[in-house]
Design brief:
The complex is a heterodimer. Chain A is α/β, with parallel strands linked by helices. Helix content of chain A is 45%, strand content 14%. Chain A is built from twelve helices and ten strands. In chain A, helix 1 packs across helix 2, helix 1 runs antiparallel to helix 3 and helix 4 crosses helix 8. By secondary structure, chain B is mainly α. Chain B has a two-stranded parallel sheet. In chain B, helix 1 runs antiparallel to helix 3. The longest helix of chain B has 33 residues. Chain B is elongated, with a radius of gyration of 20 Å. Classes of the chains: A alpha/beta, B mainly alpha. Chains A and B meet through helix 1, helix 3 and helix 10 of A and helix 1 of B.
């Protein structure tokens, strides 16, 4: 990154907010989020579960529908406060991050433009590309979402520091995902795709871990990709980024040895999921692997009530319009229908995520 | 002079962005006043931490230069222009902390927390 644009420096790989006051404010948000997630939610889970069971034992509710669970949880006062806290900290995080970065927005956009003329990273985008309305939601409440704000990549990078509670300042999580990506059984790895690459944190980690391999990153959101290219250039990494839909990548048949996705599928509408899965199957060579790190999926086996409550709340209140459909869909069935053979993937530092390895028969 | 007590007085997010976090937002409590109190409390706490953090940094910087901080602070006399600027900043902070009360002024203000988070968007080129 350009030190003239961010004279206050970086936290790990993430530019610091533009003033000490902004940094202090966002540090507060991060500490508050940690408290809410680690200390308040367990209380909500325990008290909500107890009330749910009491209501069920009393015959007030007779099933395990999410409406009944939410109703029982919401009767517990701490639940309302938890909901208020989570929503407010998310709003504070985005509002202050963007306000702070607006001070350097013009210079930053110039930096992003200049990155187009330098290398070694590249970015393919079609001026006629149509961004579907479903992708233009303000996911996680980020103003303008991933597609509407020219500085969305920078805002995302700075804002999500609080989301990761300080544990991903140096992209440690993304490096772990890249290092644990499952290789084809024959060990041959010359071409890898990070599908739904966002600002390219995992793409960079893949290139650093497999320097001899050709690394590609694909996403629907041009502002995020422009930021990814800038980060890759600054790191001297020759990564090839492309703006395209995950279900219409434009890559050739059997052209990749491995594909990796990180929290992609819960951000896409239900009807696109099998299309994306089939597209990945098409572009993987025989014996290729698809490493999937994703939201939990509960098809055929219900998650505990507290987790169902949390996912339902998160979907409605953190602009995750597609996550509920994903959580309860037959995701593994979609993978096997496409032809993949499945196995459990490696565990990661984020225990919330599920990890699946889908192999294309050799 | 800054406008005080407007819902987005310190926000530079343009109207075309921030559908989710601007406007009345969401209500979670039966009495929306509680939502406003919590938002105000959070802003107050954030601002308190900003002050403490800045003071910590300031003291470290001045100590490194061998300055008597207490004496310097107590004897400091701002000119009228600076005083006005500090009042403006104070107005801003008051607006930031208490804007939740005007953000959701009535019992039915804000979207119900059970509403899904989605709005129809056209495809865009």
């Amino acid at each position: 990154m350009n030190d003239a644009t961010f004279p206050r420096g970086y936290v790990g790989t993430t530019p610091k907010p533009t003033t000490l006051g902004d940094e202090s404010y966002l540090d507060f948000v991060q500490s508050f989020r940690k408290l809410v997630i680690r200390e308040v939610f367990p209380v909500v889970a325990e008290a909500g579960q107890a009330n749910y069971e009491a209501r069920r034992d009393a015959g007030d509710i007779d099933g395990d529908a999410i409406e009944d669970i939410s109703s029982a949880f919401s009767e517990v006062p701490v639940t309302r406060s938890f909901q208020r806290f989570v929503r407010s900290q998310q709003e504070m995080m985005w509002r202050r991050s963007r306000e702070s970065l607006l001070r350097v927005a013009e210079q930053h956009v110039r930096d992003l433009d200049a990155a187009e003329q330098s290398g070694p990273a590249t970015l393919e985008s079609d001026p006629g590309f149509v961004t579907p309305g479903w992708a233009r939601q303000e996911i996680h409440l980020q103003p303008g979402g991933y597609t509407e704000d020219p500085i969305a990549g920078l805002v995302f990078h700075v804002g999500t520091r609080a989301f990761y509670e300080g544990m991903n300042d140096d992209d440690a999580l993304h490096r772990e995902l890249a290092e644990k990506m499952t290789l084809p059984a024959d060990g041959h790895l010359s071409r890898v795709l990070d599908i739904g690459c966002s600002i390219g944190q995992a793409s960079l980690a893949l290139k650093q871990h497999y320097p001899a391999a050709e690394i590609h990153g694909l996403d629907v959101a041009l502002p995020l990709l422009r930021y990814a290219r800038k980060m890759a250039n600054d790191a001297g990494l020759a990564i090839r980024f492309r703006q395209a839909l995950a279900q219409q990548t434009g890559y050739g048949d059997e052209s990749f040895d491995a594909v990796m996705s990180y929290i992609l599928f819960h951000e896409t509408p239900l009807d696109t999921i099998p299309e994306i899965v089939q597209e990945v199957y098409r572009i993987l060579r025989p014996g290729g692997t698809f490493s999937i790190y994703e939201f939990p999926n509960s098809y055929g086996e219900q998650l505990p009530p507290a987790q169902r409550f949390l996912i339902d709340y998160d979907s409605r209140n953190n602009c995750e319009p597609y996550s509920i459909d994903f959580v309860y869909c037959n995701f593994k069935g979609m993978l096997t229908d496409a032809g993949f053979e499945l196995e459990e993937g490696p565990t990661t530092m984020n225990p919330f995520l599920q990890s699946i390895v889908a192999r294309k028969k050799a | 002079m800054a406008t005080v007590m407007t819902p987005n007085s310190s926000s530079d997010i343009p109207e075309s962005l921030g559908f989710e976090i601007q406007g009345a937002g969401r209500r979670y409590y039966d009495d929306v006043a509680l939502d406003n109190v919590v938002d105000a409390l959070l802003e107050m706490a954030a601002n308190l931490w900003m002050v403490r953090d800045r003071q910590y940094v300031l003291e470290r910087v001045l100590s490194a230069r061998g300055e008597d901080i207490n004496a310097l602070v107590e004897s400091y006399t701002p000119d009228p222009e600076e005083t006005a600027e500090r009042h403006r900043q104070c107005d801003d902070m008051v607006g930031q902390i208490f804007r939740s009360f005007v953000r959701r002024p009535t019992a039915d203000a804000g979207h119900d927390a059970n509403e899904p988070s989605y709005r129809p968007m056209e495809d865009s080129q």
